[in-house]
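stage 2 :: seqdesign
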């Protein structure tokens, strides 16, 4: 092969190299962009499921009372024993009121309550039967990462929601959100 032919081949190769490099970079950019879009779509799907489950969780237990009507608390002369059990707390023969489920997403969950008030304090016994108990993990969420009950108290327009989310069997404090911060409410506690 003559020198002239060799120089032409080398020149064409030198011109081909930048085009091949640009094509490689373009393909890599397309692959990375596709991966980023897939990751973003998966993240958006996870957030959508979380929001969907949150709405379903909020609607899971609706009291049998009509909307806007409060839960009734019975007046008692004796203060109940707060030990986490319904039996033996008072001499009352009152029965527990059952919560109805707004959706049949999990038919294995049951909830009942009994409200008692004396002169200056109110007591609520809430029993939730759940075959798979998940306790609150403060590392996952400040308010409630596991099974929990939300109690709303106050007048219309001035309602405060308390999250009852035990971290383990035994005593627990209620938590509420005020001004973006989560605080414990020592006056609302449970066993």
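stage 2 :: out
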């Amino acid at each position: 092969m003559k020198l002239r032919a060799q120089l032409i081949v080398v020149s064409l190769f030198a011109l081909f190299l930048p085009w091949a490099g640009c094509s490689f970079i373009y393909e890599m950019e397309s692959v990375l962009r596709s991966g980023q879009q897939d990751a973003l779509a998966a993240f958006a799907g996870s957030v959508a499921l979380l929001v969907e489950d949150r709405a379903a969780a909020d609607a899971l237990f609706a009291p049998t009372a009509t909307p806007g009507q409060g839960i009734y608390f019975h007046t008692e002369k004796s203060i109940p024993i707060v030990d986490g059990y319904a039996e033996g707390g008072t001499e009352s023969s009152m029965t527990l009121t059952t919560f109805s489920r707004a959706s049949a997403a999990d038919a294995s969950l049951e909830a009942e309550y009994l409200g008692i008030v004396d002169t200056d304090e109110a007591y609520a016994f809430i029993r939730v039967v759940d075959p798979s108990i998940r306790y609150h993990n403060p590392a996952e969420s400040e308010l409630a990462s596991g099974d929990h009950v939300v109690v709303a108290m106050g007048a219309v327009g001035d309602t405060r929601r308390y999250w009852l989310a035990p971290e383990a069997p035994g005593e627990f404090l209620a938590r509420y959100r005020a001004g973006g911060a989560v605080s414990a409410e020592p006056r609302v506690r449970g066993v």
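stage 3 :: structure notes
- Residues 60-69 have pLDDT under 50 and may be disordered.
- The first helix runs from residue 3 to 60.
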